[in-house]
Amino acid sequence: FALVYRPDLRRAVYVAAGHPPLLHRRRDTVTSRGAGTQIPVGVLRDYVWENEQFNVETDDVLVLYTHGVIEARDREQRPFGNEKLIDPVVFLGSSGLFAATAALSRPVLE
Q1: Cβ distance 67 to 19 under 8 Å?
Q2: What is the pLDDT of residues 48-64, one digit of tens each?
Q3: Helices (DSSP H) in 1-110: which residue ranges?
Q4: 28 Cβ partners below 8 Å, 6+ apart?
Q5: Which residue from 12, 36, 59, 73 has the highest number of Cβ atoms inside 10 Å of its Cβ?
Q6: pLDDT digit string (tens) for 71-93?
Q7: Is 61 exposed, middle or buried (0-12, 13-18, 19+ CB in 10 A)?
Q8: What Rg, from alpha-carbon coordinates, does the chain have?
Q9: Distance between CA 84 and CA 92 in Å, rounded?
Q10: What are the b/e assignments for 7-42, b being 16+ CB within 10 Å?
């Protein structure tokens, strides 16, 4: 994946390239950016990836994560999945990086 943020323009450009989507939280809404729109690098030689551009406002939160998070399994061997990340992202607030990481890790580890 690649993410470029221009604070002077409050603009972000993202390409997933086979990675999980970026989660973009604005207030109490989470939007998936780049979900299922790209193939991994190296699959097709002439494939052209498309960048997704979006505005970033003060207090927005951008969450990037790996397949390891969504492929983690619980005690019954059920995959964690993308959907279970949404609620923790909605309630992240402005608690800082370490608190946000702990809040996102907690449901995966339970």
Answers
A1: yes
A2: 888 899 999 998 989 88
A3: 67-71, 83-90, 97-109
A4: 90
A5: 12
A6: 888 778 888 877 777 777 777 76
A7: middle
A8: 15
A9: 14
A10: eeeeebebbbbebbbbbbbeeeebebbbeeebeeee
Which DSSP category does 44 fall into?
A: S
Long-range CB contacts (< 8 A, 24+ apart) of 74-81?
74/110, 80/107, 80/108
Residue type for position 106:
R
96 compared with 79, residue with greater pLDDT: 79
What is the pLDDT, as a whole number, of residue 12?
Answer: 96
Q: What percent of the chain has pLDDT over 70?
A: 90
Q: Do the beta carbons of residue 107 and residue 86 sit within 8 Å?
A: no
Joined together, the tokens standing for residue 88 give 């923790």
Phi, psi dihedral angles at 72 (to 5 degrees):
-60, 150
Please identify which residue in the block is written with the tokens 């193939």.
Answer: 39
Order the strands of the 52-55 sheet from edge to edge.
2-6, 11-15, 52-55
